[in-house]
Design brief:
7-stranded mixed sheet, Rossmann fold, globular, 10 helices, 9 strands, single chain, disordered C terminus, alpha/beta, 35% helix, two-stranded antiparallel sheet
Length: 284
Amino acid sequence: MTCRPSISASGIVKAGVPFLLSSLLLAGSGCAATREAARKVARGYTGPRENLDVYLLIGQSNMAGRAPVERQDRAAVECAYVLNNFHRWARATNPLNRYSTIRKVNHEQGLGPGYTFAEAMCEADFGGHVGLVVNARGGSSIAEWRKGSEYYDEAVRRARIARETGVLKGVLWHQGESDLRNAGYLEELSKLVENLRKDLDSPDLPFVAGKLRRGKAVNKQLAELPLTVPYTAVVEAEDLTMLRDGLHFDSASARTLGRRYADAMLKLHEELGWCSEVEMLLPD
């Protein structure tokens, strides 16, 4: 995997010096043609394991996605895949949570943050691919994600399956609307991160949580996560807009949230030093 540039909430790629230099090195080397050929896969992913970055997307309905899938959200993400119910990689098209093994009825699934997250991660990478394991459940409380629960066990099981053909690179979490009065939310979330890292054999696995549009008590605890658990981050959501139900992000906000998740994930990757391959390409 290569070093990626930062992405703003608006989705604009901010290319740093390493990104620009490595782009120049790649130009004219035939990599562009190779990359384009690799991405012309009709269905599924069959490439090398090390070229597929896998992300686990879990939580409740705003991670599952309840926003309308609009025209701009209908195409498959060019270099992204989603783990389907046959444990195979399918092209990443909405609704992404339709393959969740714990989801509610399929007609409730809509646009969530995973779509633009995948777009942004693809834009920030040099020819790699993104694999999404989307296994969210609307209305779930954090207690239902404790180790040994159905929701937790399914998330771990599917992440392990995805890990056979890809490299697990992070977890996206959006949940809390069912825990607005939970004074121990931070403690439970910290334990969730600890358990996932242990059970997925990845002690530094990046974990990005999203704040709620409304829920000051939970948001206050979420803000403390990066201060208490290493390699975690939290993205803002209090400025986003909701559907008429007042519970779920609208389409524009779901897209913005996904880009914010990508930006936070990329920064954690940089913090972990997952840029060594590009740095090797740079002149002394």
